[in-house]
## 1
Amino acid sequence: MTSPVGAIDGPPAKPALTSRWDSPALRRFRRHRLAVFGAVTILVLTLACIVGPFLLPFTDTFIDIRQRFAPPLSGAHVLGTDQLGRDMLARLLMAGRISLAVGFAAMAISMVIGVCVGLVAGYYGGAIGAVLMRFVDAMLCFPSIFLLLAVSAFIHPGVETIILLIAFTAWMEVARIVEAQIKALRERDFAVAAEALGASDARVMIRELLPNAIAPIVVAATLNVAHAILAESYISFLGYGIQPPTPSWGNMLDNAQGYLTSAPWLAMLPGAMITLAVTSFNFIGDGLRDALDPRTDAR
Amino acid sequence: MKQPEALLEVRDLHKWFPLRRRLLSRAREVVKAVDGVSFDVRRGEVLSLVGESGSGKSTVGRSVLRLTVPTAGTIRFAGTDITHFSRRQMRPFRQRMQLVFQDPYASLNPRMTVEGILAAPLEIHGRAASRSDRRDKIEEALRLVGLLPQHAARYPHEFSGGQRQRIGIARALMTGPELLIADEPVSALDVSIQAQVVNLLVELKRRLGLTILFVAHDLAVVGHISDRIAVMYLGRLVELAETRELFGNPRHPYTEALLSAAPIPDPTFKRERIVLAGDIPSPVNPPSGCSFRTRCPYALPACGEARPPLREVAPGHFKACIRDDLRLRAPG
Amino acid sequence: MTATPALVPAMAPVTRSAASMAEDVVLDVEDLSVSFVSPQGIVPAAREVSFEVRRGETLAMVGESGSGKSVTSLAILRLTPPAPQCRIEGRVRLRAGDRRVHDLLALPEARMRELRGSAAAMVFQEPMTSLNPVHKIGDQIAEAVRFHSALSKRGALDRAAELLDLVGIPDVRRRMSSYPHQLSGGMRQRVMIAIALSCEPVLLIADEPTTALDVTIQAQILELLHDLQQRTQMALLFITHNLGVVAEIADRVIVMYAGRVVEEAAVLPLFKRPLMPYTQGLLRSVPRLDLAGRRCDELAAIPGNVPDPLALPPGCSFAPRCAHRVPELCDARVPLLEGAGAEHFVRCARWASLAEGAPP
């Protein structure tokens, strides 16, 4: 027999809810245990990176030659020291500042580019949309990690340039998501209504359409942070990214290569931080995806 | 056919939508959604466009509002030819002609409060002098459509279908329009709510002196609300007459069939029903000559030869059918 | 499903209570209640719905959105969502073609699946969602046929052609190899009816089958259903919100409001002498085609909105919108469905006094 999908006329309209970011979404997010874990982890990590360095007895650049290669949990250095006797905890937190800042900043820039391109392409469609989206496709075909390496080989790699580089290679997915959303929303009656009222293009795009596409954008933003942190680690690990003495999780890994057998914690600790941060952001993204999709409420 | 007091004059309106070209096919096919439609809407009247799906009635409404660009023909609003107006040129006219939608769920932005929805027309046209002026205008509009001022802070999903349709009507009235185009405004509503909204439209028309172009498929609702009715079939007008005349004395076989097919809520009402055979032909390849001839019980070979013009067969009664010898049945 | 537990061994049809069911009754629904569990609370979608459908009879179930009419029809065939989300109580009995009576809510799922389609079939409002877009029409019907019979593939295809012919589809051979999107809405609904009829069900449930169609096509489908019923003598449960369609097709009518049956009568008394103020209001609020042009200025609309199912009034659900409401009488408790003459039932505390006071 065929299925009766879409034939039910009840249960009827939901009763009034009090706010826009209504509790159902929050409740769905809370039900997603891993997402909650991710959110808490990121919160703790961010706070620790901001506040932590002020509270520690050592700075990340303090060199204590007598304490070289101190293993974790031995003496004053909780997480041990590196080949120059610098405190690993202080370095990890300072590196976290850089890595998280790169992640968030690159995400913000890539979101702005992606949303703008997607909005314009989805709203106008036609030739403008086709040209923009083909450009997006071309960018997607390009192996971004090689692009990153190639460009950073030519210009002096600083934090700002790394952020810009990562952002320029990460906006395409967002553009595609936004374009698809806007294209669908544009056909909806409320968009036609705004047009019939004589609203300008910008008003229709920003006031009417964009707020309705916010859910997938938020999800993409979260996943983009994870992507950016990972990308920064790659290029710093390969030596083209953040340059020592400024620490980042990536260049700490790079630095640890020579001591894998003698001082494994030098590699394991930044590696763990990267894994923790990236998976946390991915969990949050998954949780948000479920939470912001009202169709999952039935389950 | 020209009436001096016409607020809206539509002449020979065409709207063709090109179909995507198929692979290996030379011919570029077009959907003739509207294929040569002319009518006037007089100031203060309700003119209804009636037809089944694919008749092009909604496309006429959207073309009149210049939400799509007509392929050919002219549209004059209050004496001004707006057919080829740019967006900027259209702006002052947008305040004077507004649209009410069919689906009260899709036509309100779910992310905006009622206040935001109703404020948009004021902001776009700079019609609110101050914050308090804005609030007054929104309250007035809400009262006008039978809602309460405290509803302004809520979101659309907190309202029932009928209430949402009231909000949609309030939005259309914010700029004080002269012409309201109502595109199936009650067909998505429950029976008991339909009557509320129909009554509201009739009352608003009387109080505000609105002119309404009412686009619908339900003949009973149309018969209740309109002064004149235009019947459309496959992108063309087939008959146009005063409501009473059209229902009492239909002259086009399609009108007769439409009237006969509409179910009447009275089990004692017995009539011989004309059930049209077959489906509505595709607007990509409409039949030659009279487009209704493939389903018409009275078709003659001559019907396929030339497209019958819309001509006046009685004062104010127009039809596009070559057969004047028919005695068609009316309900009631 | 939290229905009454099956006390009889699986696969054996329940025949104990057959005696209480009159011979010509095909479907007997007793105190059927359906509720949905939602985050906001338990939503009662249908409450204590009882009715019978007899052989060769068309029973129309009328109501607006949220009245519980569709939910009731889905619950009869156990097509509502599964147990924790949806609770069904009451009893539904179906007399299959072989005269055996089945207690549908107590049957094991496998047995129920056999009955669906073979004894009772359903047609929905939107045929496109019920047809598989990637299979040819002919194959889809043949599959339905083979599911319930021992026919060969060849035989099933022949039967499919026969069925398409029966539902008035022209050029059957060509249509058999069409895909659903190549058909018009009316044609698709005909295909759905053909599938529903493939195993000669004793009961056909049609849930708003013409709502998505144009009037001229609606007229075709109504005529088709009427003809088919005359021919097969199946029982037809027709769910609709359109009173015009009801007047046209129904023998008896059930009016539903906020999940309850509020009036039940044969079609003539229901339209000529409705007793429930809701039914009266509904009939008055419909614009009449035969009166068009003679404009009475205002339609008699029913004020207000359908109540929120999570906050139903304590007494009569219609009381807040009713012009005849007497608070101490109507709000005290839910009125009973009382007999008011031959086969005429009404759920209104004031029906008797209203009927006396007002001219028919």
Note: Residues 6-96+175-319 of chain B form a domain with the Rossmann fold fold (CATH 3.40.50.300).
## 2
Amino acid sequence: MATQPTLTSPDRYAKTSFHRKSIWRSAAIAVVVLLVFVAAVIALDRLLNPQLSGLALLGVGVVLAVVPAGLWLTFFYVQDRVEPEPVGYVGRMFVIGFALAGALGIPLTNSVFRVQDWLYRDPLSTIFGSLLIGAIETFIIYATVRYFMFDEAEFDERTDGVVYCTAAALGYATAINLQFILNSGGSGLGGSEVYIAELALAYAAFGGVIGYFLGHAKLERDPIWWLPLGFLITVLLSGLFFVMRGQLETGGISVGAPAELPSIKGLVLAGALAVIVTAVVSLLVNRDVNRALSSQPNASGGDPTIGDRQANWVVVALFAALLLIGAIGWNGVVNGVTAFNNGAIGGAYPSGYGIVKDPAAALHVADRVGSGAEFIVASKALQAGQDVRTVSSMLAAERATAYTAYKLIDTRPAILNNRQVQVQQFAYVDAAGLNGGVPRVIQGADYIFMMNNRAVIATMLAAPDTIGDVDPLFTAFVNSLTIK
Amino acid sequence: MNKQLRSVIMTVGSLFALLAITCSSAVAGSAPRGSALAGESGLRAAGVKAPASACATLKAGDVYWVTLDDSGAIDKAVDSYPDGTSKVTAAFDYNCIPKKTKLAIIWSIDGEQVLSDSDTPKATDKANTYSYSLYKKDDSALENGDYGVEFYVGDTLLATSKVTVGAITSTNVTTTTKTDQTTVTVQGVVSDSRSKKPINAAVVVVLKEGIDPSAWLKDGTDDDVLAFAKTDSKGQFELNEQVPTNVALPWIVGAKGYKTIVESEYTIEEGSDDPYIMDITLQRSK
């Protein structure tokens, strides 16, 4: 990435920033307008009760996802009236933030680390998960501005960092919001808009914090820890926000008809955060400007961008360290195991699974409030001449009569832990559910071992959409089995 | 300042105009909600439609069972129907009916679904009574058994009840009237707290009295479970066991990708409706 300085000392330091005394007031107005907009969406949703699909859903989804971000950005841009940043540059930050969120940020948090599946499992997982989310999102916002705008000549005021980072952060939030509204199929647009506005305000606040540090770094000769400190503060702020929101927005149980109005606690929290961050950043920028105007420019020799580059590498290293810490926490939560020893059979099952009462099994565990997957270990007495293939066939025959639409998908011999095993995969239909629900398909796999005159059968049952996550856990579970 | 104010007003105005235009066009071109339902088992059904509206939400009272007079109007309420009954009619009182409300009605006999139908009652902002009858095409007698009806608006269960035709089963009448029962059947819907989208495969667990739900989540066994259910694709559930009233019990509701609700003590008050209909919303984890 180019690091050629576009402003050289001492001009760089002579350039200061204009005061923007009423920026906090503007932020408060923006929050109020945003709340009014959200209320209007809720009212329109209740009045029209639109049922959307296809292009209509996409159109409304884009509008509802972009408007809160656009509204907030517009107010910031109007504030920047004395020397406004080029619209193209601001738009570029928004688009790059949006694209990086879609290409890297969201896939990393949602698909690689699958934070949503374990974030609130226990207090420790909440801390690790929040750090992981915060580090990924903050680094993408930081990287968007640091690598695509920082060296531009237009980045010449202290508040420019705030404006550009806010744009990048809102791009990130818009990517999440668009995905959310499309995934929800257009249902509950009013409640969805509360969530969308909440994320837009929160991300704008995160962008404001890291933006202040970047703007300061561009205009000042800062110590090497300055940018990493800003990065860390933003990560912690982000994590704190998500933890607090998790405490406020808990879902709920009610009797009878569903609540008519969506909860706005998270939105109020995000709005307060955005106003407070904007006010604090505004105060800090004005203080910095006053200091710069009242003192001599620092005209010491040397390339002032060297410090920025070094600090940038520290930020990258810090990001890598946080990612590593988050990954260790993720591994501990997701791949943690609980040991068991049931006489002849021992091993370790995933720690999030609970024991199911099953007299016919040596062990039966289930991920009750997660994937719903079940692992079962049972043994079966063998008669003369029977082997694992016979047991496999017997199991298939038994299940074909016990389950609806039972189908054997594959059966084959394999070697596991130096033991010969028969592996078979199957599927059947579970008709459970009330009227109107679609019956569920259950997919499973057996590993059948020989043990003296008995066959030990390790079975996995899971929904097809979770099989990709469950299968590695089951493989580890089967590998852990020890048979005496 | 004036210039700034003007630009702000214009921006906000434009955004609202854009939103209104998009929403209006989307509504005009959208497909009606609910799946197409068809009659089954030689049974037919007819709705007695209530009489348009500023109404926002349809709220239904308890379902009660009635007989009709010759003009098709409600004659009287009944607790059960005798042998040879040719028509059963379920009714509920409502506050109002919003525009384009589509009701789905599902009938079952002895737990087996026999008829699904949909109805779009005329919008009204006045309270009235909605009724729906089940009868055979040839007006012959209905089979004896436990008849159940469920009324849905979209995916949300609005009201439900059961009644017996003929004196054949243990539960002579199961209506939504308040009684001194000690246990209730618990049904409901689990949905996303924001989008209201039903959540498939969510788990509802009621633990035995005194069990610590947080500890159970970490290392619990089935011995501690009093009642259990998993939602279907419509987010609906019915607990596999009846739940005692007036007892503070630990409840857990969870689903993949959602924050688990852990209620250490949730009490169903004595005299509550049976079935006890719950609306549960889960918050996305992230």
Note: The CA atoms of residues 36 and 190 of chain B lie 23 Å apart.
